Amino acid sequence: MTPTTPEIAETAVLVAVELKGNDAGDRQEFTELVRAAGGTPAATLTGRRSAPHAGTFIGSGKVAELRELVVATGATITIFDHSLSPSQERNLERALDCRVLDRTGLILDIFARRARTHEGKLQVELAQLRHLLPRLVGRATHLARQQGGIGLRGPGETQLETDRRLVRGRIASLERKLELVQKRREQGRAARRRGEAPTVALAGYTNAGKSTLFNALTAAGVLAADQLFATLDPTLRRFSVPGIGPVLLADTVGFIRQLPHQLVAAFRATLEEVASADLVLHVIDAANPDWQHQARCVDEVLAEIGAGDVPVLRVFNKIDLLEASQPHLDRDTSGIPISAWLSAHTGVGIPLLLTALSERLAGDLVLHSCHLAPTHGRLRALLYAAAAVTAESPADDGGTIVDLRIPAAKLQRLLRSEGLATVPDASLSTQTGAAGLRLEKPLCAHGDPTSWS
Question: For residues 166 and 176, what is the distance between their CA atoms, to the nearest angstrom?
């Protein structure tokens, strides 16, 4: 085994400026991000500005104050809780004589540390290179090979141009590899749709407890830690929902305020698991006083990745940290569950969540008896695999009569996959009460005696 050098934490000075018209950032969250990246916060510079300074973001007076902090603390890096332009980073590095990192670079560094799978590493590297490309100016200028003077004229390409060409080539290579990843994921989603198992995706702010809830529902044993971005690589597991049967649950990367666009673009193949889900469980840290703002951030990212129209069930987690809070379901005026209050850590409220999932995934249920001929053994097996059969009795002709409980759309897809004629949606009518959806005319398989009683 190759010995590894223990990582030394870097002393960092943090900068968080409140800009007019913008929400003030969460200072505690920013500090935790720095610690997650291996930094040791030594001091924090705060202030207010009506608008960012074009050259240094914070202005000359604050730059002088920041330099004094850097010298006094012996910091080797200054980290901004803001996005900086490449020119602002260069100007600040010259003025402070230390490395400068913005919020985007900080989050990318954390992602690089946490990525474990080959796919995750590809996505992080792509995001890092896209962030680095416009920042190559001013780096390694002493290696320029195109200069004036006798004997100093090079072959016509500066080191900067060489670096840009190499970075662009690597970006193109990563994009090709991630296209293959996206195709594989699309094939996997198509196979799951053919398997008729609905998909539920976990989404939420980082450290809201998604992985803990994932383990509580599936007993998967994935990493669940009290830290930001503990999960980067998506995980799919199957679990059972009463009245529905097998359901696929997807655990995805957590979102955060000002999530870098490079990451959203690079992780698109992964985030499409959310966009293609039948239902999104939006996990919210109910014990966080800023949960409403965090929920809005998640809603914005969901809309950005094309998941804004996917049905959402909110899950208010960590109620064990709240005083006098009991597990319960919130319903809309139609009686449909819209949120569940629980503690994934203690397991309190998990049965209520399963009830809500059963109701939300069921949608318009077909509750009906179906006569299957002896030749429809495969269809009978598929109905059982979809957990659609609630009772079965023998028929006089050697076939079977099965009582079904299955969403109408799922039943239509299943019948089409078997080459059975299906009725148009207009022939389905919603009945009140427990009867749910009823088929108003028989379904037949091109003259085959499959019928509805």
Answer: 16
CA distance 213 to 349: 11
Say if pTM beats, i.e. exceeds, 0.85: no
Annotated domain spans of the chain: 10-101, 196-362, 365-452
The residue among 213, 420, 421 whose CA lies nearest residue 318 is 213
- Considering only CA atoms, which of 348, 385, 117, 99 is closest in space to residue 212? 348
Instruction: Using alpha carbons, select from 240, 260, 323, 254 the residue that is nearest to residue 284.
Output: 254
Mind listing the pLDDT tens digit for each residue in 153-196? 455 556 777 888 888 999 899 889 888 877 887 777 666 555 55
**Whether domain 10-101 has CATH 3.30.1360.70:** no
Identify the CA nearest to 137 among candidates 176, 83, 86, 102: 86
Question: Tokens 């209050």 belong to which residue?
Answer: 341
Q: CATH topology of 10-101 equal to that of 196-362?
A: yes
**Cα 259-264-269 angle, rounded to 5 deg:** 150
C-alpha distances in angstroms, 275 versus 201, 291, 353?
Answer: 9, 23, 21
Query: d(Cα 405, Cα 418) in Å, to the nearest integer?
Result: 19
What are the residues whose beta carbons fall under 8 Å from the beta carbon of 418, sequence distance 6 or more?
378, 379, 382, 445
Residue 1 has pLDDT above 50, yes or no: no
Q: In sequence order, which ranges of 152-290 are alpha helices (DSSP H)?
A: 159-194, 210-218, 261-266, 268-275
330-388 pLDDT tens trace: 999 988 899 999 999 999 999 999 999 988 887 656 777 888 888 888 888 888 877 77
CB neighbourhood size of 108 (10 A): 25
Cβ distance 174 to 126 under 8 Å?
yes
* Residues contacting residue 391 through CB under 8 Å, at least 6 positions apart: 402, 403
**Cα gap 428→209, rounded to integer Å:** 40
Q: Which of 182, 187, 140 is nearest to 161 (CA)?
A: 140
Q: Are 443 and 415 in contact (CB under 8 A)?
A: yes
Pairing of strands 389-394, 451-452: unpaired
Question: Domain 196-362: which topology?
Answer: Rossmann fold (3.40.50)
3-state secondary structure string across 291-322: HHHHHHHHHHHHHHCCCCCCCEEEEEECHHHC
Tens-place pLDDT, residues 108-117: 888 888 777 7
Look-up of token digits 């094939």:
187
CA distance 344 to 350: 7
